[in-house]
Amino acid sequence: MAERRLQPLARDAMAYVLAGGRGSRLKELTDRRAKPAVYFGGKTRIIDFALSNALNSGIRRIGVATQYKAHSLIRHLQRGWDFFRPERNESFDILPASQRVSESQWYEGTADAVFQNIDIIEPLKTEYMVILAGDHIYKMDYELMLQQHVNSGADVTIGCLEVPRMEATGFGVMHVDEKDVIIDFVEKPENPPGIPGNEEFALASMGIYVFHTKFLINLLQEDAINPSSTHDFGKDLIPHIVKNGKAVAHRFAESCVRAESEKQAYWRDVGTVDAYWQANIDLTDIVPELDLYDGNWPIWTYSEITPPAKFVHDVDGRRGHAISSLIAGNCIVSGATINRTLLSTGCRVNSYSQLDHAVVLPEVIINRHARVKNAVIDRGVIIPEGLVVGEDPELDAKRFRLTESGICLVTQAMIDKLGS
Q1: Which of 58, 65, 79, 404 has the maximal Cβ count within 10 Å?
Q2: CB count, 10 Å around CB of 329?
Q3: Model confidence over 254-271: pLDDT tens digits?
C-alpha cells in the first residue's frame, strides 16, 4: 500500500455521492425508502459506508444527490451527518432533485445528477471530484486513489474490483493494458476481457470515479447538450474518455481498508434480498469478513440515545439468550432464544419465541411462541403470537415474499393480510 503524502489530496477534494436510486431488486424494503437508506448491520444505513470512507479518508466537502423516496434518507443525513463546520472549510450538502435546470426535468442520469448542481460545486473551488455510489458495503481509503489519479496524469480514474472473469458479465468491465490504462469499456459483456497476466480475472467497475473538477465540469456541460446522450457516467462519459482521453483503472485491493482480522478485500452489492440477508448474517460469524469493530476506520452514523440491550428470564424453556448474534441498543429479549440473528435498534422479542438466521430491522415486536427462520423483517413489523415463518416454503410463498434461495421478506402489510 502506498504511503500517504504530508498534505493529503483529500483535503482538496469533494466527494459526491449518488444516492437517488430506487433499488427495486430489494422489493418491499425500498417501497418507502431509497436503497442507500436501507438499514444494515443493526445500527447503520447502507449510505454510511461511502460517507464514512470519505470522512475517514480526509475529505471534508461532501454532497449527496437524492431523488427516489428520499425522506427517510434525508432525515438520516440531517440527524447523523450535521457535524461539518463551514468555519473549518467543511461542507455537507443534501442535493435533492429540485428541477434547478428545468421546471420539468428531474435527474435524468448519474451524470445529470452532478451537472444540475454545478453552481453548488464550483464555488467550493476543490481541485478534485470523487464520484461515489451510495449503495455498496466496503471500506476504502480514497486518498490512495486520488494519489494514483494525480501521478498517472489520468482524465478519469475508475475504481475496479478483480472478479473471476465469467462472474463479471453483470458489470461494466475494463479492458486494460499492462499499465492499467483502460483501452476499452464494455457494459455487461458475454465474454469479459481478462486482466493482462491474470486472464482468469476481469476488472469490474465499482462506480467510483476520480476527476479533476474543471475537467469534469467541462465534460458535463458538453454532455448536457448532446441529444443522443443518456447523461450517465457508465454509458456515456466513461466510454467517451476511454476513446478520446486517458482513463486508468484503480484496483480496489490497493486502497481497501482492512483490520488485522480481515483477510480479504471486502465489497458487497447488497442489491437483492438474498445478498442483503447474507451480508447481514455474515456479521454474526465469529470472525466476520467485514470488521465493524475497527476503531481505526469507524463507520459513522446517526447514533440514537438508547438504553442497553436487555435479556430477562432464566427458567427452563423461558430463558432470554442470544448465540452468535448482534443485538443493538434498546432491544429486550424476554425469555426468547436467538441464534445467528441480527436485531436492530428498539426490538422486542417475547417469551417462548425463537429467531434463527433472521435479519430484524428497527422497532419490530416478536410476540410469544413465534418462530422465525431465514427471514428479513422490515421496520415496525408486529409478528403475531404463534406465527411461524421460514419452515414451510409453500405456505411462506403465499403469505410473504419468498426468494429463490428460500429467504422470507416480511412487511407489516403482509402481516395485516393474514387476518383478512
Answers
A1: 65
A2: 18
A3: 999 999 889 899 999 999
Rg over CA atoms, the chain: 23
Crossing angle of helices 71-80 and 47-57, in 10° steps, is 30
pTM, two decimal places: 0.94
Binding residues: 107, 172, 187-188, 205
Euclidean distance between CA atoms 368 and 238, whole angstroms: 55
Confidence of residue 1 (pLDDT cuts 50, 70, 90): very low
Which amino acids are annotated as binding site for alpha-D-glucose 1-phosphate, given as ranges?
Answer: 107, 172, 187-188, 205
Distance CA 219, CA 24 (A): 30
Amino acid identity for residue 75 in this structure:
R
Report the C-alpha gap between 255 and 208 in whole angstroms.
Answer: 12
